[in-house]
Write a structure and sequence with these properties.
- The chain is an all-alpha fold.
- The protein has a domain at 19-66.
- It is 45% helix and 0% strand.
- It contains three helices and no strands.
- It has helices spanning 8-12, 35-48, 54-66.
- Helix 2 (35-48) packs antiparallel against helix 3 (54-66).
- The relative contact order is 0.16.
- Mean pLDDT is 79; it is low at 1-17.
Length: 71
């Protein structure tokens, strides 16, 4: 029996798109943006605490800014 894996966004009903619209607003929701840096940030915080993970936090913020979010 073969099963297909669904993404977290499909499971939660979030619709994610890419880029910035004509008004300069992000097309995707913040929860869907930058999954790689978000995962690294969250894992670091869980294991070491927020104070020791500033590098990962800043990397995630930079990625969000590139996606059009104001953080």
């Amino acid at each position: 029996m073969e099963t297909t894996a669904s993404s977290k966004s499909e499971q939660t009903g979030h619709q994610c798109s890419h880029g910035v619209d004509a008004e300069g607003k992000p097309k995707k929701k913040m929860c869907c943006a930058c999954p790689e840096t978000k995962k690294q940030r969250d894992e670091c915080i869980l294991q070491h605490g927020e104070d020791k993970c500033k590098e990962f936090i800043e990397a995630h913020k930079a990625c969000l800014r590139q996606e059009g979010f104001k953080v």
